[in-house]
Automatic annotation (TrEMBL):
This is glucan endo-1,3-beta-D-glucosidase. One of its GO terms (molecular function) is glucan endo-1,3-beta-D-glucosidase activity. It comes from Escallonia herrerae. It catalyses: Hydrolysis of (1->3)-beta-D-glucosidic linkages in (1->3)-beta-D-glucans. InterPro entries: GH, Glyco_hydro_17, Glyco_hydro_17_plant. The keyword Isomerase does not apply. It is an enzyme of class 3 (hydrolase). It holds the Pfam family Glyco_hydro_17. The keyword Hydrolase applies. Belongs to the glycosyl hydrolase 17 family. GO terms for biological process: carbohydrate metabolic process. Coiled coil: none annotated. Keywords: Glycosidase, Hydrolase, Signal. Its EC number is 3.2.1.39.
Length: 367
């Protein structure tokens, strides 16, 4: 126990040795579809060592929220799609908030509730019809409790809601989704909440590696592309995707809703038919992305608005269904070691998570 205590104290006192890239605003998605992850209290130490102060959950796990008490980490919590119908009932929404939000607010910074994930790109029109009423109800309940300025409400979308994305200035939403998106944009404006997009240049490359430039997808040097309508030059796909969403929002009459990236990342491993899923490419994508976040860059169409991004994901998650790539988006293995080098060097804990040893071994790592 004494060894564990000394190791943790040493870890915390060496926080200032870390390169500060990650402290400048990048967020991290903390998924937990796995059976081998470290405890939330150890995750809190890891994130503190990296100066990561923004975390996005896919639920409202009380163990995580308690473990991060008094850490000054901003949390986005999630309401899964299975809750949408329930959340259209104000009394049930108030009960949920009373159980999953209010008890933690005094010590854990919950700043956002994401109601549903990628609902509009699915096939369930009934679920789509519940989405905005659920968002409105949760927002109204927060307002009644005096919390709507402290905790904002939104939902997350995939890029599949776009009908057109190229060139970026011609971005539009799918016509069949207009009936849902138009009133949702009105809600975002009135509630002053952002429009969240899960954007993955990897998917575009994987689906068409012969036509999509890998360098363009990875923020590597490349000729780029010129938007013929604006003459703006894009040197990477993610910025083009973001501006296409802004254009689609503008086409619906709004220039007053901010776009944030709730997920982006690159897998370090995939099946044989998943082109580009390698540790080298994942390291380039996330490393180059962090450099641009550090520089507080905006996109070509919105140069004064710094990109706001949550990287997917903190850990590899071994129980996620689907192709191999789905289980290999993590920056870290569950034992606390980096999956690849993204150019941020510092003193990181190497944690032995076995129940038998219960000790911490410290090592200098490059992340």
């Amino acid at each position: 126990m004494a060894t564990l205590f000394r190791a943790l104290v040493l870890l915390l006192t060496l926080t200032d040795l870390f390169v500060g890239t990650l402290s400048l605003g990048v967020g991290i998605n903390y998924g937990q579809i796995a059976n081998n992850l470290p405890s939330p209290s150890r995750v809190a130490l890891l994130l503190r060592s990296l100066n990561i102060s923004r975390v996005k959950l896919y639920d409202a796990d009380p163990n995580v929220l308690s473990a991060f008490s008094n850490t000054n980490v901003d949390f986005i919590i999630g309401l899964g799609n299975e809750y949408l119908l329930t959340m259209t009932d104000s009394s049930k929404a108030q009960t949920w908030i009373g159980q999953h939000v209010q008890p933690y607010l005094s010590q854990t910074k919950i700043t956002c509730i994401v109601v549903g994930n990628e609902v509009l790109s699915g096939n369930d029109t009934q679920l789509m019809s519940y989405l905005l009423p659920a968002m409105q109800t949760v927002h109204d309940v927060l307002g009644n409790l005096g919390l709507n300025k402290q905790v904002y409400v939104t939902t997350a979308h995939s890029l599949a809601i776009l009908g057109s994305s190229f060139p970026p200035s011609s971005g539009t939403f799918r016509e069949d989704l207009a009936q849902y998106i138009q009133p949702m944009l009105n809600f975002h404006f009135q509630a002053n909440s952002p429009f969240l997009i899960n954007a993955y240049p990897y998917f575009a490359y994987k689906d068409n590696p012969g036509q999509v430039s890998l360098a363009y997808a990875l923020f590597q040097p490349n000729p780029g592309m010129i938007d013929p309508n604006t003459n703006l030059k894009y040197d990477n796909m993610l910025y083009a995707q973001i501006d296409a969403v802004y254009s689609a929002i503008k086409a619906m009459g709004h220039t007053d809703v901010k776009v944030k990236i709730s997920e982006t990342g690159w897998p370090s491993k995939g099946d044989v038919n998943e082109a580009g899923a390698t540790p080298e490419n994942a390291g380039l994508y996330n490393g180059n992305l962090l450099q641009r976040i550090e520089a507080q860059q905006g996109t070509p169409a919105n140069p004064s608005v710094a990109i706001d991004i949550y990287v997917f994901a903190l850990f590899n998650e071994d129980l996620k269904p689907g192709p191999a790539s789905e289980r290999n988006y993590g920056l870290y293995y569950p034992d606390g070691t980096p999956v690849y080098n993204i150019g941020v060097q510092g003193y990181l804990p190497h944690i032995d998570y076995s129940f038998a040893k219960k000790n911490v071994r410290n090592s200098a790592s490059t992340f």
